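INSTRUCTION: Work out how this chain folds

Fields: amino acid sequence; protein backbone structure tokens

Chain under study, with its fold:
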Amino acid sequence: MNDHPFSLAGQTVLVVGASSGIGAATSALANRLGARVILSSRSADALAKVQAELDHPAEADVVAFDYRDVEAVRLALSPFERIDHVVIPAVADENKKRGAFLELDDATMRASFDKFWGQVNVLRAAVPKMPAGGSATLFASIAGLKPTGKDAGLSVMNGVQAAVIQTGRSLAVELAPVRVNVIAPGVVLTNVWNDVERANLADWMERTLPARRAGLPEDLAKAAVSLIANPYVTGAVLTVDGGLHLV
């Protein structure tokens, strides 16, 4: 018997947004801990590169789809009979949806909810394949709990994050005994930022956050795996933000 507290041996983990950043880091850690991982994003080529760098690349499947497309999600997941855990850190070009509330056009406002609907689409396709005690880990943002400042241009996106959080908490009750949790990250140094932005953000985090360090994709991967591995956690909203919610 494997008594490692974070062993995922014999389990299948679907990671949506696995081609880079938090998703790639989560896929790598889950695979290292024994899981078979289903790597998904819009780019099959990017996913193949992630697969090649896994500790156990043979224990991974590459499935490319756009999580905003209901039918594409359903078809992509249809071959899999069982999915033990789902992790959905995928973003939907959120930085491109910034803008003052009174100036954003209607199309951009509606597209801001791509992240919400993408996670809904994945859950509706995956949950029927999940066993009791399986888990879904959704991703929102600390901005769903602590709104950003007036000049951030994220008022609508903040509402999206809050929607993900409250939906996740509600689904923990409705979908039980499948477990549902939400991770609320702060700033993380992923490729949504360019090199200059990453350097500036790292400096700001090291000076400002209580943790006195920058947030990395691997930090979020550890949080996601901890939620997957602990069968007594459901309905949680886990802030992984270096203490940003405190300042």
Remarks:
- The chain has eight helices and seven strands.
- The radius of gyration is 17 Å.
- The chain has a mean pLDDT of 95.
